[in-house]
From TrEMBL, chains A, B:
Residues 15-82 form the HTH gntR-type domain. Pfam families: FCD, GntR. It comes from Idiomarina piscisalsi. Signal peptide: none annotated. Keywords: DNA-binding, Transcription, Transcription regulation. This is GntR family transcriptional regulator.
Length: 232, 232
DNA sequence: AACCTTTTTATTGTCGACAATTAAAGCTCC
DNA sequence: GGAGCTTTAATTGTCGACAATAAAAAGGTT
């Protein structure tokens, strides 16, 4: 299943070898294959991907940009660690920016775009029925949904910030802390309500609903993070 | 006058030569010494700063990060051009994010920090009286003010996005399109009202006032941009 | 044995050269 | 003379090696 969000960097296909490495390392960090908090060796990763250090450093710079690694001069890069504080900070920003995106989308989306988004949601519903309980496809669907609305805002900076700089971190929290149980179906309903508001060209309501949707999602992850902390 | 905003990259002093080049080129672009829309030659700039292309490319990557240049694979980097559309997009985001920053600051700033910020504003007022009509110091003061509030939000991502990724572009609009006339003194009054709201721990009002402040600033630049376009 | 200093090692930052790609110039053909 | 193709030139992407810095190990002192 080729999902929308598999691409990055404003949705260009990887042309340079730095792009390829970036995509691979992004995926590895998001999915936890490279442990959170671990140090990244430039020479090591370069060897692993059969490239020189130059393109790898370019990739590292972009990984820093999407907040997946933290670099300190002359000391190298470390994979970020997921914390409660970071989660709150991230979702505070998402509420504001995706709320704005939703409002702009309600004002600017073409009728057929709204129709297409509505159909996409129906597709996700099918998938959910078929794969009850399996969380990954739902996450992909959720990300797809948010991506579409962000793109519909037509705000260049907003698209860049959310899709390129913030969403990999969001996915990292989701993949590593999961989304499942009753939250999945509730998220669907919230998506549907948001689309309805957009279809009615009610930007204010769409904004509000998106903020609540994100807030609910945050609370869900918060509890998982809490449970996760208590175990370890 | 050493101003607060002269530093960058989360306020670390430039240690590597890529840092030095970055600061210099940032300044050159913001102040229009490197023309908007012009192509950047890696070899040329590298020679100009007496460094090799490696640190210069690192600097370019960060310039792209703060939206001062746009890079396309195998085609190089171009300095961004200031447009009406871009201005609107930028300020839409600023309203949301700085509004949030203001709300968080109202909740979290220590009493002595508020006191210090209030005193900073008095200092700016002195400066304004002395240098009536000269816009640069006012801008520096304005940027100082916004920086303080953003930092007070204590939200790591918010600080990074606003101070590292967006504010150079904001400064570019200000420096090249200027802020002067009655807007200067009005901005002072708005700053004062915002501090008062923060001192009263009224986050909601502080949020609202900051949004209006930014909106007013946008309208001011809009008219300048309009006039500028009509001339050229 | 713990602490500080010095030496060693490893890692990051920088350089110059080469390969790959794109943009420009020149040529051919209509 | 202009459109399309070919060749040339210029620019970007990548590589391996060296220099500079920081972390680790060894040594000495109290």
């Amino acid at each position: 299943m080729q999902t929308f969000y598999d691409q990055q960097y404003s949705f260009r296909s990887p042309v340079t070898s730095a792009d390829r490495v970036l995509v691979a390392v992004q995926k590895a960090i998001v999915e936890g294959d490279i442990a959170a908090g671990s140090k990244i060796s430039e020479a090591g990763l370069a060897k692993q991907f059969n490239v020189s250090r130059a393109p790898l450093r370019e990739a590292l710079a972009r990984l820093e940009r999407c907040h997946l690694v933290e670099r300190t001069p002359n000391a190298g890069a470390r994979v970020v660690t997921l914390t409660y504080k970071s989660l709150i900070a991230l979702y505070q920003i998402r509420e504001e920016l995706e709320g704005l995106a939703c409002r702009l989308a309600a004002e600017q989306m073409a009728d057929d775009e709204i129709e297409a988004l509505s159909k996409l949601l129906e597709q996700h519903l099918e998938n959910q029925r078929v794969r009850e309980g399996e969380s990954y496809y739902q996450e992909a669907g959720d990300v797809d949904f948010h991506y579409r609305i962000i793109l519909a805002s037509k705000n260049q900076y907003l698209i860049n910030m959310l899709c390129d700089e913030l969403y990999f971190l969001v996915r990292m929290y989701r993949v590593q802390l999961g989304m499942n149980g009753p939250r999945v179906s509730r998220a669907f309903d919230e998506h549907k309500a948001i689309i309805t508001a957009i279809a009615n060209r009610d930007g204010e309501l769409a904004d509000l609903l998106m903020r609540r949707h994100i807030s609910a999602s945050r609370k869900n992850i918060e509890t998982k993070l809490q449970a996760h902390k208590e175990v370890s």
